[in-house]
Amino acid sequence: MTGARRERRAPTGSAANPERLYVLTGGTEAAERAALDLVTLIVARGEAPPTAPPEQAALLRMCATPLSVAELSAYLNLPFSVVTVLLTELLAARLVEARAPVVRSALPDRTLLEAVMHGLQQL
Amino acid sequence: MDFNSSDTLAGPRREDVLPATAASAVKVVIVGGFGVGKTTMVGSVSEIRPLTTEETMTQAGIGIDDDYGSATKTATTVAMDFGRISITEQLVLYLFGTPGQERFWFLWNGLFEGALGAVVLVDTRRLEVSFDVIGRLEERGVPFVVAVNSFPGAPRYPVAELRAALDLPEEIPILHCDARRRASSRDVLLSLMRFLHSLSTAPS
Fold first, then answer.
1. Does residue B47 carry a pLDDT above 60?
2. Beta carbons of A99 and B24 less than 8 Å apart
3. Which residues does UniProt assign to the signal peptide (chain A) (predicted)?
């Protein structure tokens, strides 16, 4: 080791962040977009209408079985926020269904953690 | 139809398709300094070939830029490698790791907020490159474990010495691993889950 020592920090919440970044959304305001996580699972519920733009048609084809927003972004080679804009329109048209992720809460869900541990032990 | 000959990516390979029963997903973020093996760890435990997602952000100039009356805006692309482990027919675990600059990860809304926890991967030859990211996790209250990636030729230090240098409390697990090995990377994730489980059972 180099002899450098770290000093512990206290929880402050995200408000302490001095940097301001803005996501490019192509004009769509954040409020108009659906709350989608990187790991929200998306499943197609219908066929693309003939008028659908090619990205939306490709997206619908891909999620015939569940796929996360992150995977859709990777396969479509589009930034995450652009995919969320496409998905917001598809969700409004009821062409896709979103299965929300399990997020960390103040107290982790023990049953969930036990399921993950069991699954990992099978690897 | 030969789908693979298409110019656009056809989507997941047949073996990478999730069952229709997949109902929910959880995520874990693997962090650490440049070159400590984050992407290696994602790749070694993932059931799919690791993929990359990205986000484009603009950073408005603040502070000194304001004195010149015109705030500068810089577009930054933040890339994130990720992999996947199917836990059950219903539950999927995603692992995110990134080769990019860590200060941007924390600005990616929801990446850490929704994660179950984080793995901090460290290299004992450059321990100090992990200091900032550990501090940021502490500030945000994101639970984490520390995994020391055993690089060939890197000196091994006792956990107590590492704990002192990293200024970590007793309860935070520190373990040695080889990020190239699937079983070793899996054990790191198991250690994180046990730690999260202990937090949920500990009297507050």
1. yes
2. yes
3. none
Cα gap B179→B149, rounded to integer Å: 6
Sheet holding A67-68, edge to edge: A67-68, A41-44, A96-99
- The domain containing residue B176 runs over which residues? 3-201
**CB A120 to CB B87 under 8 A?**
yes
Cα–Cα distance measured from residue A16 to residue B140, given in angstroms and rounded to the nearest whole number = 10
Return d(Cα B151, Cα B40) in angstroms, integer.
12
Q: Report how many domains make up chain A.
A: 1
Q: Under 8 Å CB-to-CB from B88, ≥6 apart: which residues?
A: A115, A119
Chain A from 74 to 113: CB within 8 A of any B CB: 74-77, 79-81, 99-104, 107-110, 112-113
- ipTM exceeding the 0.90 mark: no
A12 contacts B136 by C-beta, under 8 angstroms? no
Which CATH number is A82's domain given? 1.10.10
- Sheet of B73-86: strand order equals A21-23, B51-60, B73-86, B91-97, B24-31, B117-122, B144-149, B174-177
Q: Would you give the DSSP letter of residue B114?
A: S
A8 CB within 8 Å of a chain B CB: yes
CA distance B66 to chain A (A): 14
Q: Are B58 and B74 in contact (CB under 8 A)?
A: yes
CATH (domain of B143): 3.40.50.300
Query: What range defines the domain where residue A75 resides?
Result: 26-101
Taking a C-beta distance cutoff of 8 angstroms, is the pair B90, B23 a contact?
A: yes
pLDDT tens digits, B104-141: 777 776 788 789 999 999 999 889 888 988 998 999 89
Total CB pairs under 8 A between chain A and B = 235
- Which chain A residue is nearest to residue B54, measuring alpha carbons? A79
